[in-house]
Structure formats: structure tokens, C-alpha cells
User: Fold these one by one.
Assistant:
Number 1:
Amino acid sequence: MSNKYHYKAYKEGLLQRMAIQGLREKIDPSDENYAEYEKVIKKEISTLEKIKFDGYMLLLADVVLVSREISGFVSCFGSIQNSLTAFVLDIVDVYEFDKNNFKNFTPFAKKPVVNILISSYANGGCVGYIKHKYPDLIKKVKKRTIIFNDDLIIKFIDLGIEIKVKETQE
């Protein structure tokens, strides 16, 4: 694990509790693979805790939730894409339940980047929310990009949806 981060979850075990609850909401606990999924989540979270990235995973879940409230549509991809934990926390929309995919989630060898697709009218609100709630974690803010002290990068990518909707209404 080459990178170490400095944003541990503020409550011990919070990420795991939220992830297991999310798993229960997405997968019936009586599903024959449920125990295996739970095991994978616990392994991912253990890795995140070792590199002190578990707080950022909670931050991402918070940011995506608020972005959905502001924008209506949000989709994420990037460094956390193959994480079952990110899927059950609703950070990413799609997760392929394939045994080989479980092996794809590894600690970041380079700076993690999370891309959040939202409509342009929501960019300011989403960036403003992060600046207001997490000011001590932010190193730099560029228009639609936030760089955190530990070099996690969140990029808000403009879908231009309202422009396309407006064009179809004319």
C-alpha cells in the first residue's frame, strides 16, 4: 500500500455498518451469495481503514447523496468503480457481481480520482457544499474540481442536460 491518507471515519465501524445496511437493501440476506458479498465488503473496508481512506468513502457517499438532491441525476466512475462497498453505499450505480471483479478492488497505486457526472446547473451547489462541509480537508478548488489534502480528486463533469432538454423543447 503505497499511499496513506489521513481521513479516518469519525466513528469506529460506521463505514462497515452503513455498507452492510446498504447490502441488505440491495441483496436479500437469504441469497446464497450474501455471505460472500458481506465478506468482500469487510475485506474492502479493512483495506480502506489500513490506508486511512475510510473517511473519504463516507465523504463520497455524502457528496453523492447531496449531489443527487441538487441535480436529480448523478453517476460516478473512477478509482472506486470496482468497489462493492461503493456500490452498496450508492456511490456507483453499477457493480458486476462477478467473482473476478472482487479481485479488482485494490488500494490506490496512484492518486485516486472520482468523476461525478451531474447537470451543469448543479455544479456550483455541489462544489459549494463540499467547500462548506469539509473546508479543512481541501487543498485546492478549481472550477469543477476539488483536490483534497491527501490528493483525492473529485471532478464534477457537466452533462449539459438542461441545454439538451431546452433544445428539444424549442
Number 2:
Amino acid sequence: MTQYRILDAEQNVVQTADLESNEKAYDWFKDQSKADDSLGWGLEANIDGEWEFLDQSEGGTNLTGSDN
């Protein structure tokens, strides 16, 4: 499992989760209240001890919100 975190527009960590894939993490991100990437919110994954930004092209099936 990989650790993921959601950052708000001020780059504060607002939530973390251990999930099986980038796809599941992106769906989790989109389902969180007010987590809107068009407003500066972001999703990061902990890869070998380094936090890396993820975007929709790296997974996710929930195409609601700013994706439409």
C-alpha cells in the first residue's frame, strides 16, 4: 500500500490514507468535501520517502466536478 495525502490551497495536509493504487487514491481525493483541484487542492503520494504530486492522468475514474 502507498500513503497518499490531500493538500489544500495553502499546502496544508488535510487528510491522509493508505490505498492500493493511484486510481483508488484519485477517486478518494475527488470524493472528499471541497477537494477541488481547480481551486489549488492537490494529491500527493509517498514514493520511497518522497512526496510526489499526482494528477488525473495518473489514475482515477470519478469524472465529476472540474473534470467535466
Number 3:
Amino acid sequence: MDAASLYLVGRRLAMLAERAMAAPEGVPDEPSVEHLVLRAVAERLVLRAVIERPGLTASDLVTQLSIAQSRISQVLAELERNGFVRRYPDADDRRKQRIEATVHYKEAVEQRMTRNVEEALEPLLIHATAREKARVLAALELIHDLVLRAGEREDGSEAPEKKTPRRG
């Protein structure tokens, strides 16, 4: 598991926690964790997706990343403005826009996004034994797989069912 996958797991867990702690009816909500997350994380996730699968559409990104369409549109506009991605018309359907990362940014983004989770969690695991580290990492892998299989979108609606192979 890499840092981007860890972020997706954490985001889904945060969404579940927010639901559990929702304010009673009539009581105003505090800003959600989603609003407090730096937009750079969403931008990096989009960049990683278009690096891994050049030619995705905005709809593909919504499905793959479980991020709202409006947020994907904002992120893509910002990334295009800054020269990170380019959009081009689909060869078969000129109404569709395909997205790819610019060559200039592919290597830098990929290097950041594939950071090892063990390295990212080092502050948490500093006093853990080797066995405890292995158990934590295995548990995170399992949670990651379960989150992907659950297929729940950011807005709580069900995503199209995904067939994710189980790891032994």
C-alpha cells in the first residue's frame, strides 16, 4: 500500500466517523473534515490517476476516486491552469474530454505518491516491534481492500460494484 491508498482509506474512515458524529437535526454542523483537507491531496490523487491511466475522463475520475463531480471539475481546472494536465477530445466522441498528465510533471508526482506507507507511518510505529509493525500494515491492507470492495462514494451513494480480487 502506498501513501495515496492510505489517504483513501483514511478519508473513507473519516467520512464514516463524520456520519456517526453528525449534529442532531436543527443544530448547525461544524466544518467537516473534508473541508479541512488540503486541496493539494485531491490534486495529487487526480494526478496519480491520470499518470497510471492516461486518457481518463472526468467521470472516470469521479468513479475511481469517489470524489464529487464538482470537486473533480475544480481540481482539473486548477491542474490544467498550472500546467500539470492537459485535456484533449476523445477520438470517438468529440464531446468527451480525455485527460493526461503533462510529461514535465509525471516523474515528480509519481515519486511523491508512491511513498511507502511504513515510511509515512514511522512516527506512529516508532516504538512498535517488528511483529506489531507487520500486523498494523497487514490490517491497513485489509481495511484498504474492504474499503475498495464496499465501493461507497463520497456522497454516501453506492458506487458501481467493483470486482476486487481477494488477497490470500
Number 4:
Amino acid sequence: MSTLAPRWATRTRGRCRDPRGGKLEATERAALGPLGFACTARNAGFARSPSVVAHAVNDPSLPKLVTVGSVNFDSIPRDKTATLEKILDFVRDASHQGCDLVVFPELALNAWGECEECSAEGRPCGWHLEQAELIPGPATEIVGSLARELDIHVIFGMEERDPYDAGTLYNSAVLIAPEGVVGAYRKIHLGIPLETDRFTPGDRVPVFETRLGAIGISICYDFYNNPELSRILALKGARILVNPTGSSDLPGKGPMITYTTLVRAQENLVYVVSSNRVGEQGGARWAGNSVIGGPAFPGFGKTLAEAGREEGMIVATLNFDQLAAWYDWLPWREWRLGAQRYATDIIAREFSEIADKAGR
């Protein structure tokens, strides 16, 4: 019997037996399930999940097919106006190719790169304070107008100015729907010291409800080196994870982007859209390799579309009927929010104790 069975389940000579009456031959279930589980959650009697899980996976009101675009994007350093025009051109191209959602990299609007002034001062320099924007603001209004015209969702990275403190900036990614700005995620895991000199970390992990389904956003280091954030977004109901990133072209970066995308997709049973920058800035070259991936059974992760190092857009269609079928064999969210809720409590307690000790 699967070790994930609830406490009231017992094992009797190769059978998974529910004391409340049901039983199932383990060999039969193993033959039926592509993951090889002897007992599925449904037949072993796992507690059903909160409604957020059903909403994330099987909500009949959500589209079964969603077409997404991910842009290998070359921002124009210190020319936000010209960069914004490029973003608009790619949004038009995405609409022409039938995309419901198009994703741009981390700080795409602001040509993310090192700043000697910020590093020297240990805080945002005057130029960055001046060119950062509020959300909603001028750039989101322009993109939002086009999104409304083309009936498309857009996510792009930008420097956000705090509405209550003009000296505080965030490394943010904004989600714009045809109806307007849905919200923005502020990067939590900032690179040290390159980003901490300029930005303040965010303090929320939001999941955004759209007519495409729930979308979770993480940014670069949030995603690649901190798997907890993707897990939280998935537990909160996201069925699409979006990763705007600004990853330089160091040895092995391209495969790392692809492999991590597939791991996050597989372990959370979600689709993942990663978008990275290309080109050169300040002597550094960006890795590109934007990728769209999803889970696969049998196997481990499937690349749906993958870019190289040149500017351009990749497009893939996400099949949520297929995702629901896979989830039916491994309803991990139901387990973690139902019969295995204790595990979530244990992990939360352990992280809290680690944080408390680190703060002493």
C-alpha cells in the first residue's frame, strides 16, 4: 500500500482495504496507474481537498486549451520608451499567433543590469528612482490598452515604485488582463548584493485569478534556487506558473533553465512558462533559452517549446484536460491539504524554527 494512505487504511495480503468497506487488489491498481501506485487517492479513500484544488484543476468554466507565448527579449538599455514599443510589437505578434497569454523577462521594461551608482550608494540611485513607475502607471496603461484591444493577457517585468515611499523600489512582474491590471508580484529572493542595493524584497506570494485560470508568478532566483515558492503557488491553486527571468549566459545556464522548468512542472503538476533576456549589456551576455514546459507520464517533464539565444518568441498550447487526467493519478494537492495536512504543518513549523534561530 502507498505510504501516503491515511491512518485508517490497513493492508491485508496485497489488498488496500478501507475499514469502512471498500477494498482493491494492489496489483490491479498498479497495472492501471501510469505512476504505479498500488492505491489511488480516490479508491483508498483520501480526504477530499478544499475547493481551490478542484478549481485549479477541473473547473469546467475555465478553458481546456490555453495558448501561451514566451519572449526571448532584448531590452534597450536606458531607453524605456523604445523598449516599451518593442513589448507592444511582441504583444501584437502574440495575438496574431493566437496567444491568450504572452510573457516577457524580468525587468524587461528597464533593461536589467548592474548600476555602479546604486552599488556605490547602497540604495536606488536618482536615475532608477526617476524611471521607476507605479502599478498601475503609464506603462501598464499603455500595455493594458493594447491588451484590451487584442483580448490578450500580458506579463512583463519592471521596476515598481512604492506608492507610499518614493525611495523604495521593487523588482516586480505585472499581470495585465484585457479587463485591466490584475496585480503584480514583487520579487522576494533578491540577488546579493546586485539587487539588494536597489530593491526592497516583496512580502506576499499572490495567486492571480484570471479567465485563463489561476496564475502564480515567481522571478528568476525565486524559481531556480527556491522551490518552496513554486510549491506554495501550486498549493494556493495556480495551474500556470510564470517565471520572468534575467539569467546571464554562464556555462550550463541554458540547460539549467530548461531542466528546472521541467522539474517545477513535474513536481507541482502545473504548466510553467519561463521568459529570459537575450543580447548583451555592460559586457555581459544573456542566456535566452526561454522555455514552456509541463509534466509528463510516463517520463519526467516535457518541453513544449524552447528558444535559443536569439530574440524571438516561442508558442505552445497548454492542454488542461491532459493535466487533469495526470492529476487524477497523483492528486498531491488534495493529499497535502487533506489527509497529509499534517505534513504542511510540520514543514511550516520547521521553517519557522529555522527562521527564529537565524534571527538570534
